[in-house]
Amino acid sequence: MDVFAHGMWAYAIFHKKKYVWTSALFGVLPDVISFSIFFIASLFAGNVYRSPPPLNKIPKWTIESYNYTHSLVIFALAFLLIYLITNIKLQIQRNKVEQSMVYAD
């Protein structure tokens, strides 16, 4: 249920923005990343859980993955990377507009 809660919180916060679904995706991404490998491996092993599996059945690497994907440091690095990429794209667009204005004169 934590996955759905993250998605709903992201939707509730950003529901009036045009990128609401992107924010919902980023809200659930830490949970999806950490548990999807375990889920797929469990399916192939024939272990289907209708409720959360017992903690002793979840491998240690899944818990470690969960801890890393929910880390403030990882969030800060991802935020910084997205910020830099977005600003570089905006700068490129501004340069193109400025160049087209120079050539139009």
Which structural category do the helix and sheet elements fall into?
A: mainly alpha
- Radius of gyration computed on alpha carbons: 20 Å
User: Can you count the helices?
Assistant: 4
Q: Which percent range describes the beta-strand content?
A: under 5%
Major beta sheet summary: none
Helical content stands at over 70%
Shape category: elongated
The secondary-structure element order is HHHH
Number of domains: 2
Q: Low-confidence stretches at least 5 residues in length (pLDDT < 50)?
A: none
Average pLDDT works out at 83
Give a written overview of the molecule.
By secondary structure, the protein is mainly alpha-helical. It has 2 domains: 1-70, no CATH class; 72-105. The protein is built from 4 helices and no strands.
Summary, kept brief:
It is built from four helices and no strands.
Give a topology summary:
Blueprint: H1 2-14, H2 20-45, H3 60-69, H4 72-104
Helix pairs in contact: 1-2, 2-3
